[in-house]
Amino acid sequence: MKEMKACCVCGALHPVEELTEFDDYWLCSSCLRTETILCQDCGERIWADANAGDSNTPLCQRCYDRNYTSCEDCGRVLHHDDAYYTDDDDYEPRCYHCHCRASERLIHDYSYRPEPIFYGDGKRVFGIELEIDAGGENEKHAEAILNVANAAGDELLYIKHDGSLLDGMELVSHPATIDFHLNQFPWAAIMEKAKSLGYVSHQSGTAGLHFHVNRTAFGDTIEEQETCIARLLYLHEAFWNELLRFSRRTKKQYEQWCARYGLRDQPQEILKHAKGYGSCRYTAVNLCNADTVEFRVCRGTLRYTSFAASLELIDRLCDIACCLTDDEVKHLSWSSFVAGCTQPELITYLKEKRLYVSDPVESEAEI
């Protein structure tokens, strides 16, 4: 009588000679076909659920790690020799089809980081991120906005996907001085074009306006930079209520997208606490970037005067942090801070928000 044994997968009894031993298990021919595969490269049999490749290219983990990667966009498994890389990011492999599509896209991935182009003469430069929503993540709309932004032939602006938006995109500037942003960068025309295409920013409730300032603007050494940055953190905590009103955000939005570190007795104590925050970037002053300090306090806007005033406020805070001592910053009142403001857009905006020392003025609706 033939010796019978049960398949370890289906449990059916089969003559031993009809079973195959694999990985210390006995499998019938049917289960061997469905539950295991052969690595395309080395021929080793592996369990199907251990396939490091895909259905078209089954691979053991060793062969995948040695010779293969996956398309960043569609997930297709690629031999290293068949992977394409864009000039701006050698760490995102793509198949030929996705590479061709990505090279033509105007709305880049969130991780897109082009080589920065600097505009204007000055030590302090601002990279600005303006989020717009409700008009779609639309290539034709992106093209229309870029045609306005880069009409003079310079690449001033590029556009990225942003998953925090419901149906919009993020407009990102190359770094430029405040003078260049206010007098040569066509921000007002960009905002008008965005509005004509159906976008909003302030009214969306999802969009932010973020300013990146180069760390080298705060000093030549890391010690000098951190001393100034500590004062910036202190100013944000000391003027928290005023900045909340200035930002046009709700308290809930502030806590979600630009949380505070908490006031301490000394600026350096806040900086030490901030460094302990780890990789969280959703703070009012984000220190996670190696080359820049990001100010995230402001709600998005397509009203140019609000945009200009926000930029001027951040510039004024940077001036104070660089020029005053720790003790002077600690004793600075909000009224003294705003009394030193000279920029007309900023003064008008402060009056609109009842944050200036003189009579308030009426404001236009935000968009």
How is the topology of this model organized?
Layout: E1 4-6, E2 13-15, E3 20-22, E4 25-27, H1 29-35, E5 36-38, E6 45-47, H2 61-67, E7 68-70, E8 77-79, E9 84-86, E10 89-94, H3 96-104, E11 107-108, E12 126-132, H4 139-149, E13 157-160, E14 169-173, H5 178-183, H6 187-196, E15 208-214, H7 222-238, H8 240-247, H9 251-257, H10 267-275, E16 285-286, E17 292-299, H11 304-323, H12 326-330, H13 334-339, H14 344-352
Describe the fold and architecture.
The chain is an alpha+beta fold and 367 residues long. The protein has helices at 29-35, 61-67, 96-104, 139-149, 178-183, 187-196, 222-238, 240-247, 251-257, 267-275, 304-323, 326-330, 334-339, 344-352, and strands at 4-6, 13-15, 20-22, 25-27, 36-38, 45-47, 68-70, 77-79, 84-86, 89-94, 107-108, 126-132, 157-160, 169-173, 208-214, 285-286, 292-299. The strands form 6 sheets. A 7-stranded mixed beta sheet has the order 11-13-14-12-15-17-16. A hairpin with an 8-residue loop joins strand 13 and strand 14. The longest helix has 20 residues, at 304-323. The chain is elongated, with a radius of gyration of 28 Å. The mean pLDDT is 91.
